[in-house]
Amino acid sequence: MTSDLVVEARGLNHWFGTGEARKQALFDVDLALPRGSLTVLMGPSGSGKTTVLTLLGCLRSVQDGTAQLMGHALNGASETELTRLRQRLGFIFQSHNLHESLTAMQNVIMGIQVRPGVPDDLARRASERALGLVGLSDRLEYLPANLSGGQKQRVAVARALVNNPAVVFADEPTAALDKDSAGTIVDMLKRLGAERGTTTLLVTHDNRILDRADRILTLEDGRIVSVKGNA
Amino acid sequence: MSRLLHWIFGRMPIGWLQLTHKRGRFFAALSGVAFANVLVFVQLGIMNSMGTATLRPYEFLSVDIMISAHDANALAEGSNVARQWMLQALADPDVIAGTGLLIGNVPWNRGDNSITFTTFGIDPGQPAFLAPEIARDAALLQVPDVAILDRLARGLTHDEAATIRPQTPLSFEALGRTLTALDTFSGGGGFGGDGFMFVSDQTFLSLFPSRSSAAPDHILLRLRPGADVAATVARLRDLISDPTLRIRSYADAAQEDLRYQQTQRPTGVIFGFGVLIGVLVGLVIVYQVLSADVADHLREYATFKAMGYGPRFFLGIVVEEALILGVLGFVPGLLVGTAILVFMGTVTALPLAMTASMAIMVFVGTVVFSVLSGAVATRRLAAADPADLF
Q1: Are the C-beta atoms of A69 and A7 separated by less than 8 Å?
Q2: C-alpha to C-alpha distances, B298 to A1, B87, B381, nearest whole angstrom
Q3: Looking at beta carbons, which residues of chain B come within 8 Å of A115?
Q4: Could B303 and A111 be called an inter-chain contact, meaning their C-beta atoms sit closer than 8 Å?
């Protein structure tokens, strides 16, 4: 693991709602993710894990505190800048969110053609390879309706990784997977971290994969209450 | 189709794939667009036929300038004109001939198949005022109570019309007189009468005893070859001392009649509204389909947003869908619309037909309103918040 930081947040505070209904979700959260690391974010429901994920993943605007992603300041960034940054990220959602009208191959191609100028044949080859890595070489032309829950999630993983993202944000990526498949996915993320410097922030309750994490951060009531592993 | 759209849009045709994923809904949407197109085609067809029917009688005559009463908004409407104005007009050096045109409706009562002829009474001694097909029979009209009938009149069968010749005339009773048809010409039923008939001015006055040759419906003038019609109209307006008269070129008179029918007569206004309603129906149908489609795919769109796809990408998908619906819905609409117009034309003997200009106009309109609907439907994309995916 290299020492340069890909994600850095200092004093992050975040609120939802306005007026009397305003509720603070994060309290002075400090976070730093070294390049190539795999960090697990844990905590009970409502602890702020998803809020951290969406803030650092450029899906919400930073309200208070500072956040940097790949050297870019997220504070005050325009929607266009955030959109461009997201093209270099990978997202794995708990619910796969595959496009029901597109085949497995087409869904993964969407992951690589988000950047303009990627030729169709290159996109196809990369997508085939990505689906092969998650064990779905024989399901390329299947629609999501004809895939199992686990298979859909593996397609979603392939879609998130096909673009060689600098950072992967994953929300319960292994919830729908069996033990072997879950291990395969996390091992893949680890390998990408070692080989390509892909940094991963992973929200999970899955105890099967905790031993693979470089660090485990625990959130409670919007505060980081525990840090285990390399700081 | 996917490959073609991929080539056209330069990317995966997500709109096409989304629309065709639910075939039933896709075909229902196409049917809706086709229905809107059929509405517009039928209304336009009727409006066009009104226009054709309005202009058709003007084609029976060969005239340069027409003098009409101030309230003569249409050929068969308005007060009479004093013949003295024709004599005054003949004083202009460019006016070489003038005649009066008498117009009235003559019913041929024959039970279920009665025919009302819009009848023109004109001096048969001036065949130059008649279109060639009618002018060739001008000599026949010199005989009292002789008529030239419209072979396309509603109620007159093809067989009946085919037998009408000088050698085998057709006699019939109308307005208390016995008329003898010696020949036919190609006219066509309109929205007023069932067809047309030409008789001499003297025969006309026998059919309508209350009318006078001194007060025709219109005065027709012919100019010397090469004369400037507009300049002559201007001179006549100065020359003729009745400022209320409408002195116009014959072409202008026809166009003003057409405009009057389309904008001031109830039928024109009604069918004009019909076209508007057809367009609105199409707009609403396409908007509903696209809006529902966007709503159905909000999670997917939110996912694409999270992945880094920008607003132009989503607008492109919706416009792609709008164009697919508009273009593919147009084709069945054109086919059904054509069939309906042909059927209506056959049944009513009105000049109803699909024309290339109509088809092109409706196609362009369909594409435009589809894209407009799509643009409005993209407002729903604002609800696709990727942060809500977690």
Answers
A1: yes
A2: 38, 79, 7
A3: 308
A4: no
